[in-house]
Amino acid sequence: MGYTPLLTRFEEDAVGKDIAEFVVDRLLAAGLHGVVLTSNAAPHHPMWHTDGDWMRPVNARITSS
């Protein structure tokens, strides 16, 4: 994954979230537990304020592994 512009909304739709979760699962399965990835969205992106209910459980999968 790479840089996304500030107001890009792709990662907030179902396809973007599915891709992000797929990548998280693959990284964890490969033993790359130190790689934290839920989204390319940096903290200044709107989804940090609108999609916390999605981000928290995905992050929990990373931090609990």
Report Rg: 11 Å
Note the main sheet.
Answer: none
| Tally of separate helices | 3
The share of residues in extended strands comes to under 5%
The gross shape turns out to be globular
Distance between the termini: 22 Å
Task: Provide mean pLDDT, rounded.
Answer: 78
Q: Which range best describes the helical content: under 10%, 10-25%, 25-40%, 40-55%, 55-70% or over 70%?
A: 40-55%
Pattern of helices and strands: HHH
Extended strand count: 0
Low-confidence stretches are: none
How would you classify the helix and strand content by structural class?
A: mainly alpha
Characterize the structure shown:
- By secondary structure, the protein is an all-alpha fold.
- It is 49% helix and 0% strand.
- The model has no long low-confidence stretch (mean pLDDT 78).
Secondary structure layout plus pairing:
Elements: H1 14-29, H2 47-50, H3 52-63
Structure characteristics:
65 residues; 3 helices
Summarize, please.
With 65 residues, this protein is mostly helical. The protein has helices spanning 14-29, 47-50, 52-63. The mean pLDDT is 78.
